[in-house]
Amino acid sequence: MTKCFRHFKALMRKNVILWSRTPGCSAFEIIAPILLMAALWIIRLQVAVVEVDQVSMLQKQAMVSLGLGPNFENPTGPYFD
User: Fold this and answer.
1) C-alpha span between 19 and 27 (Å, rounded)
2) Is residue 62 assigned to a domain?
3) What is the pLDDT of residue 10?
4) Are the beta carbons of 56 and 44 closer than 8 angstroms?
5) Which residue range(s) make up the domain with 33?
6) Number of folded domains in the chain?
7) I want to staple 26 with a disulfide (CB 3.0 to 4.6 A). Which of 19, 30, 38, 57 is the partner?
8) Within-domain flag for 65
9) What is the reported pLDDT for 76?
């Protein structure tokens, strides 16, 4: 147990030394993921939610091609015109 703690302590000391040498890079390591997640969150708020049926599109298309399902006007949905 003591050996593991010494290795951990040495590794942490090395990390502190490396972080103190390049404070700008260290700050970027912390700030960049926060900014990326904030950007993705803002984009997600701007995108409209589209409700999807429980039956997958593959099953719907297979049913239509076999003549078992209802006749859809546009089986690919509003995405492919």
Assistant:
1) 9
2) no
3) 95
4) no
5) 1-49
6) 1
7) 19
8) no
9) 58
